[in-house]
Amino acid sequence: MQIPEYYNPVAREIAQALVDGFNRHYRLFRATSQQAKQLFEAAEWQGVQKLVRDRIQFYDERVHETVQRLKHQFHADLLDDEIWQQAKLYFIGLLTNHKQPELAETFFNSVFTRILHRDYFNNDFIFIRPAISTEYIESDPPSYRSYYPKQRGLRHTLRQIVADFGWRRPFANLSRDLAWVIRAVDEYFVQRWPQAEANLQIQLLSSAFYRNKTAYIFGKVVNGGQIYPFALPVLHDADGRLYLDTVLLEPWRIGVLFSFSRAYFMADMEVPSGYVQFLRSMLPTKTKAELYTMLGLQKQGKNTFYRDFMQHLQHSNDQFTVAPGIRGLVMLVFTLPSYPYVFKLIKDVFGGPKEVDRATVKAKYQLVKRHDRVGRMADTLEFSNVAFPKARFSDELLDELRRLATSSIEEGDDTLVIKHLYIERRMKPLNLYLMNSDTAEKERVVREYGDAIRDLAAANIFPGDMLFKNFGVTRYGRVIFYDYDEIEYMTDCHFRRIPPAPNPEMEMSGEVWYPVARGDVFPEEFGTFLLGDPLVRRVFLQYHRELLDAGFWQHKQQRIRDGHIEDFYPYPVEMRFCNRYPPQVRALAAG
């Protein structure tokens, strides 16, 4: 950017207004994380869920406020280019000692792009690349704490670690829990602990991470050149006392906690880049975009994702193609084989007997973003006006876009702009996965499919269309739901049993002999379109027969209406200490 010969005082005031808008946003963002600890201590689970939902709206609300201020106070949409360039320079100067500069730059971009046309979306006006380094930003308190078990022993150190989080509720039996942690670590290393090096230390992120009914402690053991990550979930027992539920030691299992199929964490971070850097040292396969998003900073996650994606396009040459699988009736889906995501846009005309419109589909996706996804629904990144290199699109895909989504694209000579787009992690469609699985894997994944439906029901979600093509299998083998155009809250559905036919002739006719209202669901019918394969039918009926009974769904509805929030464990229940060790081992540990 060329520095102007003189500075306009309006540019300085605009820069300050932008910083003020962002600071207000992050102050409120941190306040929710601090409140999460209080709600966890009070076991106010409904309050925790509401806090997560409300927090998602904070960013857009602050952006809107700032846009309105700039338009009202400075007539921002009428300012010339030079003032905006100067405002950006002033803005950079104001971030010199800022604790969240990368987030503030993203906020600047969000405000600017809502004021001016996308023709201005270049490095002179917005932050295409970060201008302020996030390395070595000091934090108070520091982003992580260090402990030295060689000085006072491992058990005492672990006890101090837990105490330093300052939870007001007492632990039921912390000595017992710590004994189980040490036993689990023994088993992980097969009774061969690595030799303690001079630099042996345990490093813990200073804030606990809150989600649903659990607080998570994230840390790592540093020993010589080796790093051993771990996570400790803290829960409430039936008497309202705290306990350690398990210890996660495998990086991939810890990574599952940060999956896009789960709700965002709440953690009190003065310097979020410090938390992301620490987590990446624990989980090197996780990108910055994923971590920022799962920390509730989804706009920063989107911004980082887009930068990574543009970088990938520069270093690849494969073409965007229509995604494999059965074509959807509502969404047009395409993919780039070299990139692990799919791109989804809403068609102009829906196929089949769909009773939804574009606004309804958008509302369904927003519902999923705000809802507790309990590890069973894929989160999406939502983008507007994304410019793609047109030459990278296959002829088949271009033809589909022109035929089925004309209103969502703008074609130039070299670019193709998609006006509205969802991006989500690529999965193997369940119907294709079943076709290519051996018997044992098919049995496992059918059971997983039923478990996914149960988890969704417990979280007040009815998938609507439960065909296998609307579910996917993740790289960890979990079954995830990802087609949201017919999704409904459980409490908005009317689950019914099919009434007896008035006569045998009517029953044999295949015609419906009973009235069906909007919102009616007949679970007995699920088997007709789901269980054609004999093996699938056998396994499904063995483990999930009750899903075909309206009574199961009605019971779930009533529990939701009664305010009950289920426990969801983002790790196998066999790993929980209460299931992992037999009673005599637990009694010995408690003693």
Quick recap of the structure?
Keywords: ATP-binding, Cytoplasm, Glyoxylate bypass, Hydrolase, Kinase, Nucleotide-binding, Protein phosphatase, Serine/threonine-protein kinase, Transferase, Tricarboxylic acid cycle. This protein is α+β, with helices and mostly antiparallel strands and 591 residues long. The chain has 21 helices and 19 strands.
State the helix count: 21
For the secondary structure, the number of strands is 19
**What percent of residues are in strands?**
5-15%
**Largest sheet properties:** 6 strands, antiparallel
Which overall shape is indicated by the principal axes computed on the Cα atoms?
globular
Taking all Cα atoms into account, the compactness measure Rg is 26 Å
Determine the N-to-C terminus distance.
Answer: 69 Å
Q: Structural class, from helix and strand content?
A: alpha+beta
> How many domains make up the 3D coordinates?
4
* Poorly predicted tracts of residues: 585-591
